[in-house]
Write a structure and sequence with these properties.
heterodimer, A: about 210 residues, alpha/beta, Rossmann fold, three-stranded parallel beta sheet, two-stranded parallel ribbon, 7 helices, B: about 300 residues, mainly alpha
């Protein structure tokens, strides 16, 4: 079923200095298959859909639209959305608008530290095609070349209502089992890494930050 | 082994289940009350249970070492151990757990066992925020422990026993026999310590989600986190039952227990939604000043007025 396309077993971690080599694992990520019993997997997906933990990491200008989500007017807690301050515990990563190359480095590190299954929402037009930054020298154009994206919410800037609608749509997708971004990342690991290294010139971090 | 022991363990399992589920639902109920204060609707009642299942069904988990595994295990062992020696329903054979002579000392030990285990586990995760959270949490624990211990000493002197069941028995026969009315000074000290124990504002500096991403559990995820979440509900409810037993006359039925524990919890919530957060030095200074003095006063009061 799901296999890693690459054949070599370890990562080079060439960006790390000699004394840092021992601090990080050089194991490649592995894909995870769903539970073998369909009812169990459906139930797990239902739980994942009804408890969306958003990583509280604002990248770009769209992060300002995340704050009202938790306040009295929109109250995303009603539909099971909650903020989580650490990538280890979060399950949803909202890329809030444009992503500069400097931010992309942090996005990749945070995304890889999240525990699967993990979902990515790209907010605004910028992660789709660059938006108003389409000719910027330090902003990436298409986010899904660097990390797998499950859902796009387009607009500039999308209002919090759209974010709530997006969260409901993501819930529907998770319940149907259509959100397997973590496995796509593993299957096409070398392609994603090559794309990331093409834009991040100073690669002073391990190849995979589990 | 005696058949009686199997029955006791079975009864304890039942109590454990009821108290955990009760703690989870009460957590959601309290969250909804806080949400109402903020003008929101709040989480669904089942949200804490769904959260636990969500973390439990994560597909990946990583480890930082043996102590990292054992941290949540110690934490939940502290919660289960505390409940094991607290009689939940007074006069009920089924729900009195392993309560016996001297269980009060054991319970006070168990309440802090979990936190120390968690400190070791979070320490091995190697995250600096976890270390900061642990340092703050243990300092605050040391501080609120002083008024709580003084208050417990006062009621031990007052009732002349170390058995929680006997302390509850001495408070039966009407509200005027509750410790709340026979020894209000000790209850005041203990309730101030209780504010620190629950970890709500103004004493939530050790979690501090905005500054040090949730402190000690920063690196805990997946199944580790589901253990911690379960313990949070279980341990929270157990502490409430203990306070109810020591200071508010215990409970003879589940409805009485629900009403009393909810009312005790609301003290911490009412303070929490009204006051901003203390820094750790302010928090420690607070506990070492007024609550400690009230605790000493309660012992003096017991010695002068109640013990003959």
């Amino acid at each position: 079923m799901i296999k890693s396309l690459s054949t070599d077993a370890t990562l080079a971690n060439a960006g790390l200095s000699a004394e840092e080599q021992d601090l990080f694992s050089n194991a490649r990520p592995t894909a995870y298959e769903p539970y073998s019993i369909k009812a169990v997997e459906d139930f797990a997906n239902w739980c994942r859909a009804n408890s969306l933990w958003i990583l509280a990491f604002g990248t770009g200008c769209g992060a300002i639209e995340l704050r009202p989500l938790m306040t009295a007017r929109f109250d995303a807690n009603r539909i099971g959305v909650a903020g989580r301050p650490t990538p280890r515990q979060a399950s949803v990563f909202i890329i809030g608008g444009y992503s500069s190359v400097k931010t992309l480095k942090r996005i990749v590190r945070s995304y890889e530290q999240m525990q699967g299954p993990k979902f990515v929402i790209a907010l605004g037009i910028c992660p789709v095609n660059g938006g108003m930054y389409w000719d910027s020298y330090n902003t990436i154009k298409r986010l899904d070349q660097y990390i797998p994206v499950d859902l796009y919410i387009t607009g500039c800037m999308p209002r919090p209502e759209v974010l709530v609608a997006g969260a409901l749509e993501l819930k529907k997708m998770i319940k149907e089992g259509r959100c397997d971004g973590a496995n796509r990342y593993v299957e096409n690991f070398d392609w994603y890494k090559a794309n990331q290294k093409k834009v991040i010139k100073k690669w002073d971090m391990p190849d995979y930050n589990w | 082994m005696d058949i009686d022991w199997f029955q006791k363990i079975g009864n304890f399992g039942l109590t454990l289940l009821i108290v955990t589920v009760y703690g989870l639902f009460m957590g959601a109920f309290i969250e909804r009350i806080i949400a109402k204060v903020q003008g929101r609707v709040g989480i669904p009642y089942t949200q804490p249970i769904i959260n636990i299942l969500q973390t439990l069904t994560r597909r990946t988990a990583i480890s930082h070492g043996i102590m990292f595994y054992l941290g949540p295990v110690f934490r939940i062992a502290g919660g289960v151990g505390t409940l094991a020696f607290v009689p939940v329903i007074f006069g009920s054979e089924t729900f009195s757990n392993f309560s016996g002579a001297g269980d009060l000392m054991l319970v006070i030990y168990f309440m802090f066992f979990g936190q120390l285990g968690m400190a070791l586990g979070a320490g091995e995760s190697g995250h600096p925020y976890a270390a900061i959270g642990i340092a703050r949490g243990l300092s605050q624990m040391t501080a609120y422990e002083v008024p709580f211990a003084l208050s417990v000493i006062a009621i031990v002197l007052q009732y002349d026993t170390l058995s929680i069941t006997e302390i509850v028995a001495a408070q039966q026969g009407g509200w005027q026999h509750w410790t709340l009315f026979t020894n209000p000074i000790a209850v005041a000290a203990a309730m101030l310590a209780f504010l620190g124990m629950t970890g709500y504002s103004p004493f939530d500096i050790f979690l501090a989600p905005q500054e040090i991403p949730i402190g000690p559990p920063t690196e805990f995820h997946s199944a580790y986190l589901s253990l911690l979440q379960t313990n949070r509900a279980l341990f929270g409810a157990t502490k409430l039952v203990l306070f109810m037993n020591l200071f508010f006359g215990g409970a003879t039925g589940w409805v009485e227990l629900a009403i009393k524990t909810w009312a005790i919890y609301m003290v911490a919530i009412a303070v929490g939604v009204a006051f901003p957060r203390f820094r750790i030095d302010q928090s420690i200074r607070f506990f070492f000043k007024i609550p400690t003095l009230i605790g000493i006063a309660s012992i003096v009061y017991v010695q002068m007025a109640l013990v003959r």
